[in-house]
Amino acid sequence: MHRVRVPRLWHRKPYHLTLVRRFSPTNTPLGTSAASTLPGERRLQWLPALGEPLYWYQCGPTVYDDAHLGHARTYVTFDMVRRVIREWYRCLPITAMSVTDVDDKIIERARQQRLPNESIGQTCSRIAAIFEKRFFEDLDLLGVLRPLHILRVSEHIPVICAFTRRLLDTEYAYVTTSGDVCFDTSRVQSRYGVLDASRALDASHAGTATETAANTPAADNVPGKRHPADFALWKAVSATDEEPGWPFYVPDGANDDQKRIGYGRPGWHIECSAMCAHVFGTHLDLHSGGMDLRFPHHENELHLSECYHRVRPWCRKWMHTGTLLIRGEKMAKSRGNSRRIRDYLGWSEQGPNDLMRIRREADVFRMFCAMHRHSTPVEFGDTQRLQAARIWDRLTGWLARIANAARSQSRKESSRARSVAGQESIATADASIEGDIPSTHRQPSFAVASGEHVADVDAVPDVFSSSHTQAAIPRNPTGRKVPAQLAEWSQRCHRALAEAFADDLDFPRAVRALIEFTNQLYRFESGRRLDRMDAVEHNAVLVASEYLASILRLLGFQSIPGVSSANAQASASRVPTAFIAALVDFRMRIRNLAKQLRQDTAQPTQKATEALYGLSDMLRDDILFRLGAIHIEDRKDNASRWWIDPVRADDNDR
Length: 654
Description:
Layout: H1 15-18, E1 53-58, H2 69-88, E2 92-99, H3 104-113, H4 120-142, E3 149-152, H5 157-169, E4 173-175, E5 181-183, H6 209-214, E6 231-236, H7 256-259, E7 264-266, H8 268-280, E8 284-290, H9 294-309, E9 315-321, E10 324-326, E11 329-330, H10 341-345, H11 355-370, E12 378-379, H12 382-419, H13 424-434, H14 482-502, H15 507-527, H16 535-554, H17 563-574, H18 577-599, H19 606-628, E13 630-634, E14 640-644, H20 646-653
Parallel strand pairs: 1-2, 1-8, 2-3, 8-9, 10-12
Antiparallel strand pairs: 4-5, 5-6, 6-7, 10-11, 13-14
Helix pairs in contact: 2-11, 3-4, 5-8, 8-9, 11-12, 12-15, 12-16, 14-15, 14-16, 15-16, 17-20, 18-19
């Protein structure tokens, strides 16, 4: 096995070293020390060296239904972790996510939705493909970066078989009388319960036998197990059963036990271990998932990988997100209290009705996730959502205020420049004599729209209330220049962020720092109105505001007001609508021609058909979307609809 080799792509300093001096409270190489899920190793150093890749495996969905908000909390939280690792510490996360498309729940749904002349395996593949597509669409709406590697179980059956054979050869696994393969937990009895000490096994395997069986999926309740805690690696399936399966490959020279293994499908826990070994090799830097996966899935996965690779520890860092609670109960489909991501965001099956509103709602949920430690269970409801929306509006309200003033002043500046163009040389000559700066060279003041007012600077939700946050900032400080004061506030915020990220990626602490910094800007503006500031003060306020926006972008927020957003809207409006419609219509004609060629079986047109579909996809993905931020959605009625993503257009302009 070989680890993925990644060239050194990043030579810039870490983000936390670019604006202020290095802040390293723990005196570690990167200024970070995060608490690990492993007991007894609370200060595990898990980040690689600067510019080196970080190998990260994340347990993904079982694609039998749409994802709900409990899943959203996990993926949004880890998306913020990924962005901080990449942008703040300048490490390169190589991410892989599993997609379980072979599962009892998928098989059960396939039995209900099976079409005529369709095998059970084909129905399972169809259902899995539909919900996998919808899952990643939901992640896109939430602003979650897609993983670099998507690992589907059905595409790694040979890898899983090879993984199983090595465990059989080393006697960590055994074959039951029914042809199933199980892992022998007695071989790891002394270490079983590493992630959860309460699940440790006693000498007779009887101490937690009942509890273990209760937490074992039905696929692991196989006859012939030696111990109750043993779990299935390969589940035997009869070729006549209405279940999908694959033949277990046995090479020449295999022993009799392996030859008894036949048609079947993988067990739950071995899937991630085998696919992770196939991509990353013998070691892993970070493994993440929901807290409900810590036992038994991650516990068993850990022992499978350590026994297979003969290494310990196999993974340097484990991260688990706490459950999302609804009225004190865990959100789950089985409990009937789950809410789909697309229902929460208001995404219709025909496409986005209001993309900017969806983006904002996704940012409010991201703020809710940032308000709480990733490992703690948290209640979510209308109260919590309003609290997160209040904080988000507080932060973005300042940026919108500055952006509106900048756009208003830009229009005034252009008209003023035309009126004073003939007097500029005279004003410059007079200024050189008097030793003053001509008024026409000063930064124009920012006009604030009538009716605007500064909100209460201390209006911070109780969840973040603290004497430090509520500390009064002098409105008219003496003995210090204003730009230096703003720079000091910015550096203080930056140091607070560095401390928060170094402390187990404490996002609530980071949010408190951003709230305090924004309150300082509000207080500063209320004491010196924007229309009364000189050029130096204006520039300092703009730089401080852009710093606030840059941190929000770093954390993955999408609907951030700013001058660049206005430019994005303007650039999008400059694209002729008729031109886009013509391109979409041309692409639709290509697709329709490809369909006709595919239906025409009298001629060998397979290659031509695939070439036409390839051109159609290239126009959609590589040209219109990547360069123009134009989404195209193909409909069943041989038609397509399109819309412009203003957020991505904003990113393209930057």
